[in-house]
Amino acid sequence: SLLFTLFGSGFCDHWYLRRGFTISVMSICFILPCCFPKRVDFLAYIGSIGIFAMLYPVFLTVYGYYKITPHNVIIKTQPTDLSEMFAMFPVLGLGFQCQEVVVPVYSCMRERNLCNFMKSSVLAMSILFVIYTVIGCFGYLTFGSHVAHNVMKMYDANDPIVMVGVGALIIKMIATYPILALCGRDAAAGIYAELRGLKAAEFKASEKTRRYIVAAIWFTSSLLLAIETENIGVVIKYLGSVASANIFFYPGICLLQVVLKKDPDLKLRRSPFLAIYGILIAGVGAFCFGVVLFTAIMDRSVDIRIDLCHLGANVTTQA
């Protein structure tokens, strides 16, 4: 813990240094104000900072690989059974789940056309692929199969380089959360409008009030979950199943609906192939969702939780 490193084991004795209070203050001061605007244009500069903050953990894992000498490292080159193979889907699903921000990002582009959007999408996915590959490979080679869900826990927080890495992750979360919150906010507002049967004029007239209320509720619920959930592995296991559905099932259904809307009788040559492809993708998504969710429910393994409040002063801490 960063606070343990800075203030020692007695940090838990001060209410203003406890996890719940520090997370709440940081979130309310830096994240909440960014959740209310209607558009995300202003996040372009903050997002750039978030990208550079993401690059620091890449350096940290490479740095740790050459500096740390762990013992009893077990490197597995293949899964023991199928359940271990499917266990990777939640991580991949959450890591590459970005279709939710497609619409708001496209709406804020200066020149809205498919070519520019494809360029930005390919560039973003390429950067993600490189970042995940480097962190995954060097992190696994350093700690082996015993690596924690949050690899930052494996590093010594007394190292200034690791402390900077923790700070970089905090900046990254501040920079990226508002974009995802905007997607959730708009989706919730759309569901509300459908349930209430609001017309376009009514929906637009109450947009500002509804936006503030939904954003506040969304932020508050996220904050409470963040405070109560101390193990990110739990989040990855269960929300990863939903991410699997988001990546495969929903895009497949959308593709099928678009094809049927444009060509209900499937007379065009490409329409049957697109329809079959949409059904196939949706089927894969449904299968992955069920398998990953079942695996998460049956999995009894947990990360080792260290109570920093009761550690001695001479204990080496981890981030």
From TrEMBL:
This is Putative sodium-coupled neutral amino acid transporter 7. InterPro entries: AA_transpt_TM (IPR013057). Residues 9-291 form the Amino acid transporter transmembrane domain. Coiled coil: none annotated. It is a multi-pass membrane protein. It comes from the Eukaryota. It comes from Trichonephila clavata. GO terms for molecular function: L-amino acid transmembrane transporter activity. The keyword Hydrolase does not apply. It is found in: Membrane. Pfam families: Aa_trans.
